[in-house]
Q: What sequence folds into this?
């Protein structure tokens, strides 16, 4: 496969996906669709939402498209924010607002109880149908304050075992260990075998 559309409005995701999938050419579906398509992420799981986004947008492009639905699951919050990660602090919440709310909710929780994981589900779709889904996870803890300016979303609060936050990693380092990398590796394996 030489070229793949991606159904995302998130520039941070798009950049990571393009880097990880090289040499496949990655194109944003929203750059080629003239209409204003908005997909309601009403699913209860990352899989459902990835399919919703991929299947809907696949009807507007020629060929294969992938959608990424991802988020953060925090142990002490019983898996929240989960599928609500992007809108944790409200419908149009900024990353900063989401991070602040997370810190608030974890006030007084000690480090050993601050376990969390990032989850990424990639759906591969075509002509309104899902061909396959792939899941990647990355484990860490929630830090006591935000640190670092790389990445996006909850990266400044996601503490790795070496003591750095995900936002303190260089882009290449994040792309080696991330949930997104793990899901996309499976996609690459699938594409190499099926196409
Ligand atoms: O739906 P699209 O258009 O792809 O973009 P989005 O930002 O709304 O994406 P999601 O619905 O999948 O929500 C994922 C949220 O989870 C968080 N997230 C996902 N991957 C992340 C990562 O690698 N690092 C930090 N936060 C991440 C971040 O807050 C995202 O906004
Ligand atoms: Mg979204």
A:
């Amino acid at each position: 496969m030489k070229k793949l559309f991606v159904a995302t409005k998130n520039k941070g995701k798009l950049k990571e996906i393009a880097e990880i999938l090289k040499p496949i050419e990655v194109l944003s579906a929203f750059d080629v669709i003239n209409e204003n398509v908005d997909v309601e992420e009403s699913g209860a799981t990352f899989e459902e939402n990835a399919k919703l986004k991929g299947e809907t947008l696949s009807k507007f492009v020629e060929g294969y498209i992938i959608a990424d639905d991802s988020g953060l699951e925090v142990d002490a919050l019983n898996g929240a924010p989960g599928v609500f990660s992007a809108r944790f602090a409200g419908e149009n919440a900024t990353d900063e607002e989401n991070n602040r709310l997370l810190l608030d909710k974890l006030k007084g929780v000690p480090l050993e109880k601050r376990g969390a994981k990032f989850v990424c589900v990639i759906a591969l779709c075509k002509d309104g149908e899902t061909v396959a889904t792939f899941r990647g996870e990355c484990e860490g803890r929630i830090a006591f304050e935000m640190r670092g300016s790389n990445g996006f979303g909850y990266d400044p609060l996601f503490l790795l075992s070496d003591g750095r936050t995900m936002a303190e990693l260089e882009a290449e380092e994040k792309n080696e260990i991330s949930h997104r990398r793990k899901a996309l590796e499976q996609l690459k394996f699938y594409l190499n075998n099926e196409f």
Remarks:
- DSSP finds six helices and six strands in the chain.
